[in-house]
Input
Amino acid sequence: MADSSAASLAEVETAFQKFAVHGDTKATGKEINNKNFAKLCKDCRIIDGKNVTTTDVDIVFSKVKAKAARVITFEQFKQALAELAPKRFKGKSQEEAVEQMYGLIAGKEPAKVGVTKAAKAGAVDRLTDPSKYTGAHKERFDESGKGKGKAGREDIADTSGYVGAYKGSGTYDDKVKEA
Output
């Protein structure tokens, strides 16, 4: 029994770290803020809407954190779970409730709700396929469909000295010698 508890505690800590860094580029994973703690509670179904609400979670977070702190450590996190466990699992002993709480959290990671997916409809594919472009737009892409960048958008002056409309046989030097 003690082995499974230790294993699940490691899994709980891994989940804690994943939620701690979620959405925060500067987070180390050692501390979790209130927003991510609430997300963890929601995603892991600790908040059930009846026994435990978002308000309860916010109150417990405020209770376990240090006075001026905005984050809690893993130790404080375990303390917060111990506070929420009897509320979430009524009629169970404290140890059983905490054990079930760990079971809810172990192995979880933040759900990506509301992340926008790229639209892949037939019309979009057809409209964004450069091989089907015509006219001036066709000039902006090479054969592979990769954009040419500035060269495809602007007429860049050819300063090589070659005159395209010059109609003569030979070069200018040949003309000078003939005369």
In short: The chain has eight helices and two strands. Helices lie at 2-21, 34-43, 54-64, 74-88, 94-105, 122-127, 150-153, 172-178. Strands lie at 31-33, 71-73. Residues 38 and 57 are 6 Å apart (CA to CA).
